[in-house]
# Entry
Amino acid sequence: VTSVTGSPGADEVWIVNGSFTPANINMDLNTLETTVTWTNKDRKTYIIASDNGTFSHTLPLGASFNYTFTEHGVFRYHNNLKMTGLLFVAQWKYEDCNRCHLMAGT
# Structure
């Protein structure tokens, strides 16, 4: 078990003890782009990839990867050990968007 202090920032996902923290994240795209940072705080190397093939990156221990989103949508991602995550990028809150829940399957 990896011991980590603190918590991820608003536009950040950490890999800790075999899971994404947080697993789901709401992003606000009020500008032309918003960047998410994944950081590996676990003891293993992971491959982080979007389900649609937009990005894929290997993260050894302590490494970070940034991806900039330039459009609204629901973006699923995963790693090589079948962990999954969901990014919701919009100008409104995920909880308030019925269409978004349908797209995400929630």
